[in-house]
From TrEMBL:
Belongs to the universal ribosomal protein uL30 family. The keyword Ribonucleoprotein applies. The lineage of its organism: Bacteria, Pseudomonadati, Thermodesulfobacteriota, Desulfobaccia, Desulfobaccales. It holds the Pfam family Ribosomal_L30. SUPFAM superfamilies: Ribosomal protein L30p/L7e. It comes from Desulfobacca acetoxidans (strain ATCC 700848 / DSM 11109 / ASRB2). GO terms for biological process: translation. One of its GO terms (cellular component) is large ribosomal subunit. This is 50S ribosomal protein L30.
Amino acid sequence: MVEQVLEITLKRSPIGRPERQRITLTTLGLTKLSKTVRHKDTPAVRGMVRQVAHLVEVRTRSREG
């Protein structure tokens, strides 16, 4: 079975952003610029990424499971 994985990279600083956006980035595991994390492609993760889309870069990868 092929599983979709999102690679999310923090591209812009959260300094000066609303607290809710900073919390979302921390929840995703993005604590430093250029840090990349991988998460399963779920509606919850997609929703979090949508909230901070202007700060991150997202790539979709396939993973054999």
